[in-house]
Amino acid sequence: MLKNHRPCVLTVAGSDSGGGAGIQADLKTFHAHGVHGTSVITAVTAQNTRAVTAVHGIPTNQIHAQLAAILDDFPLAAWKTGMLADARTIRAIAGRMAGMAIPYVMDPVMISTSGAALLQPSAVSALRELLLPHARLVTPNLPEAAALGGRPIRRASDLERIARDLLADGAGAVLIKGGHQRGAQVVDRLFSGGESYEFVHPRLARNGHGTGCTLAAAITANLALGHNLVKACAMATDYVHAALTQAYRPGRSTIDVLDHSAPVRKNVAGRSPRKQE
Question: How do residues 155-205 score in pLDDT, each as one tens digit?
């Protein structure tokens, strides 16, 4: 009988029928990192590279059933959440998973690349109260950080204030993604244990789809493989950069979909982050 030497990880997220983000991107990322990916689907979207045209939330009893099936069989080493859609779904997930003594990465998916709302405004408070305090890491982009923090972001000091607020609310660490900022470089900032780190990459001329999902999934996989948080984030940001470098356009729009196998071919190892004094 063959022994399973691959850590098992879980993604709780929405399905992207276009294959570029959500559950599909997470499972591609898990496979690329050599971990076994399991999934709980929270919503089914009708989606392509142009737009999200419909969203159907999965009934709570089916979410519970998916979770029960996973927990009954797989020894999870880490898990993540992406699109959770509404407070009902958040309560269902928190009720079964919040007490798990394994790393949890929360990607607070709120708006799609095309601008469609993927989290009801009324669910933001549920996200902060029920899941954020259990997160080893929360990974908002700039608009998500502003929504979670309840304040606009006008300067770099606002990022630090929001990160401190989220840490005070119980998050173990905060990685604020820099893709929405302008400039020649993309700077992702990690706030953890009283320290801050920067992961810096050249900005690419790409209109990427699924980058946030992929980043959170890569961090989750790296944590499951035993890397510490800073190393996991360094390796994950390098992975996303490499996947975006080889991005392609399968649809008829100008949206680029990540090549999740490209970093595997290039054997990305993860560079050292820039520690902030």
Answer: 878 889 999 999 999 999 999 999 877 789 999 999 998 999 999 999 999
Given a contact cutoff of 8 angstroms between Cβ atoms, the answer to whether 128 and 165 are in contact is: no
Q: Is residue 2, in this structure, part of any structural domain at all?
A: no
- Count of H-run helices and E-run strands, the chain: 9, 12
pLDDT in tens, 77-110: 999 999 998 999 999 999 999 889 999 999 998 8
**Which range marks the domain in which residue 103 is found?**
8-276
Handedness of CA 216, 125, 131, 129 (dihedral sign): positive
Main-chain phi, psi angles of 227, to 5 degrees: -75, 150
Per-residue tokens: 237: 């940001």
Q: What is the CATH number of the domain that holds 184?
A: 3.40.1190.20
- Tally the domains of the chain: 1
Residues forming beta bridges with residue 209, ordered by sequence position: 257
Q: How far apart are CA 122 and CA 133, in angstroms?
A: 18
In a domain, 1, yes or no: no
The three-state secondary structure class of 105 is: strand
b/e code 155-187 from CB counts within 10 Å (16+ = b): eeebbbebbebbbeeebbbbbbbbbebeeeebb
50 and 255 Cβ atoms separated by less than 8 Å: yes
C-alpha 219/C-alpha 225 separation (Å) is 10
Q: Is 60 within the bounds of a domain?
A: yes
pTM, two decimal places: 0.93
Q: Is 35 a member of any domain?
A: yes
